[in-house]
Every structure is written in structure tokens, then in C-alpha cells.
Amino acid sequence: MGEQLTIGELASRTGLATSALRYWEELGLLPAPDRVSGQRRYPPSAVGQVGVIVALRDVGFTLREIKTLLAPRSPAGAGWRELYQRKLAELDQRIAQAQVARTAIAHGLVCPHEDIFECSKFASGVAALLAGSSLEEAHEAAHTHEETG
């Protein structure tokens, strides 16, 4: 049967908690391992499988999406490509939001007012947010206010 790993050994080699491995097994991300005297025994290849799951999780895929990506692919099934495209679009949106947030925070650092609530630019940005604007639109409104007000 060759070298088999206990769940503790797999956890040690992958840096994950045994509870995470059991949970991933329950979700079907990891195949059910063999049992020896009731204890889970994983093949050495399970280390690589866990590594793939960790990599996909760390780039932003949910466990549900990872399960879809790990499912056997049929030649006609391009669902994984659509999932990758959706994830890229989602990441692009999050990056754009983070860039707007970063710009707003950087502007806050150079605001001449000691009390942010005394800043008319900040007040106009908050008013725009409360009126339903996105952060980007609110930031733009604050700077439009600066030029006209």
C-alpha cells in the first residue's frame, strides 16, 4: 500500500489544522481517505491536493468555487474558464475599489483640518455617499466641490 499519512502528518506537512482537513473532506474537496483501525490515511499525493486548494483559496476562490474547479473536466465543459473570468472581473472590481479607498485615505492624510468634520470636502463626500453615490463618485464630488466651492 506504500506510505500513508495520518491526518496529523498531512496537517503538519501542509500547515493546516486537522479540523480544516476534515471540513474540506466533508465538503468533498478532498477525497475520503482510506481508514486503518478507524484512522484516516492519506496518500502522499494528498499534500499536493491540499496545496492546490490553498493556492486557489489564497487567490480568492471560495470553497464552493474550488469544488467546481476540482471536479473532473469534460472536454466540452468550459465552466472553469467562466469561473476564472468571473473571478478576474471580481478581482478587477475589488482592486478598483481599493485604489479609490487608498486615494481617499491619502487625501485624508494631507487634509489641512485637524478635525475631519470641519473639512468641507469630507462633508460633501459623505453627503454624496449618503445620497447613494459610490465611494469613487463621492470622492469625485468632494473634489468638484473644492473647485466650485
Key descriptive features of the protein:
two-stranded antiparallel sheet; 2 domains; Multidrug-efflux Transporter Regulator, Chain: A, Domain 2; 7 helices; mainly alpha; 149 residues
Brief write-up:
The chain is mainly alpha-helical.
Description:
- By secondary structure, this protein is mainly alpha-helical.
- It has 7 helices and 2 strands, in the order H-H-E-E-H-H-H-H-H.
- Helix 6 crosses helix 7 (135-148).
Q: What letter string, H or E per element, gives the SSE order?
A: HHEEHHHHH
- End-to-end CA span: 78 Å
What portion of residues is helical? 55-70%
C-alpha-based Rg, rounded: 25 Å
Q: What is the percentage of strand-forming residues?
A: under 5%
What is the 3D form?
elongated
Side-by-side strand order of the widest sheet: 1-2
Task: Determine the structural class based on helices, strands and strand pairing.
Answer: mainly alpha
Number of helices: 7
| Overall average pLDDT | 87
Count of separate structural domains:
2
Total strands: the figure is 2
- Uncertain runs are none
User: How many strands, what sense, and barrel or not for the largest sheet?
Assistant: 2 strands, antiparallel
How would the blueprint of this fold be written?
Layout (H helix, E strand, L loop, with lengths): L6 H8 L3 H10 L6 E3 L2 E3 L3 H14 L4 H8 L8 H31 L10 H11 L4 H14 L1
Antiparallel strand pairs: 1-2
